[in-house]
Amino acid sequence: MDDNQTHLSATEARGGQKANTVRYVLGISLVAIIIIFAALLLINR
Q1: pTM score > 0.90 for this model?
Q2: How many Cα atoms are found within 13 Å in the side-chain-facing hemisphere of 42?
């Protein structure tokens, strides 16, 4: 085993930032894709 490993706390590893924007981006993207697919489905009837 390597004894020269650096152990960081969660705050140090993420640089002190704890942003929850990823969940909002994924949610908005999912809703946008559903709306786009629904529009394409209606247009191509």
Answers
A1: no
A2: 6
